């Protein structure tokens, strides 16, 4: 089967969507599919059997393209479109696999060449635009209609979580198959040395990820200030840019917990397993968003207890007996911390259940099984 895969982002990078595309390409190349990938100029070169990666021109003035909507991304998308159009015209793929906003390119190709497309739905673009630029809120209805158009004309929509599946269903998708992210944990014998390099006492809580406001770091520090006044504990916050790190160091200092809250900055993804080994409890205090953060799957696979906010971003993936869930308030999250502090048996019980959940539902084998099921159906219909 010939597939045109549109990946409108830097590829490869160690972050959400590029990681998911890497997993997808690995699964599809194993099937023997012939895949042409159109992607941005930025990223680490990867090689796969039966896969050709085509990049847009290397614009020296376009650097550091991050996730989400941006003018840089729109600029690059224009070149992705014309490069993809050439592939669609002369290579005539059996199906277009469109990631994120490239679904609108696929919609055009469907109109021009009657090419079926798969919508790889990693987020709700309508919600993302309004959240990033609140002044666009009056246009929410238009954005939802535009998103619905792409959903309705897709041969199949592949959302990354249940919340997005519900949006696709509401918009009238013909067919929906959820393709969850998976654990990326790969023990490599490294050590992070956090307990050696920083003063540590009591139960060690750890957060790993960026420090954007939706991640709930304010909530986490507020909760730790409450819980830390009642039991001995330490908090490590791993990740973030210098501006955010300094902001939260000041907040911790203002709460008189600066000596027990260590913002250690970003660490290589290769150290994830080593970082987890330093913790007693892994925390995801996210307060906004419907997508499940990719790190949650590795959290669950870590062999450590997980404490997370009781919101759809977590509950659509985490079984109630596989983690401790708390309402997204300082008092409730603090209660969760206190419930886990010093409770070795409870933490071990939660960790074992979480690991079993990952093995059953969120393993590489489960991911590839879903991809194969989707493409078995497409091959029967279009190949």
Describe what you observe in this structure.
By secondary structure, the protein is α/β, with parallel strands linked by helices. It has 2 domains: 2-182 and 363-382, 3-Layer(aba) Sandwich (Rossmann fold), CATH 3.40.50.2000; 194-361, 3-Layer(aba) Sandwich (Rossmann fold), CATH 3.40.50. Helix content is 45%, strand content 16%. It is built from 15 helices and 12 strands. It has helices at 16-30, 71-91, 103-113, 125-132, 140-153, 162-170, 194-197, 217-228, 242-254, 272-277, 295-300, 312-315, 330-340, 344-361, 364-382; strands at residues 2-7, 34-39, 51-55, 95-99, 117-121, 156-159, 203-208, 233-238, 261-265, 281-284, 305-309, 324-326. The chain has a 6-stranded parallel β-sheet with strand order 3-2-1-4-5-6, sandwiched between helices. A 6-stranded parallel β-sheet has the order 9-8-7-10-11-12. Strand 1 (2-7), helix 1 and strand 2 form a beta-alpha-beta unit. Helix 8 crosses helix 13. The radius of gyration is 22 Å and the shape is elongated. 43% of the residues are buried.
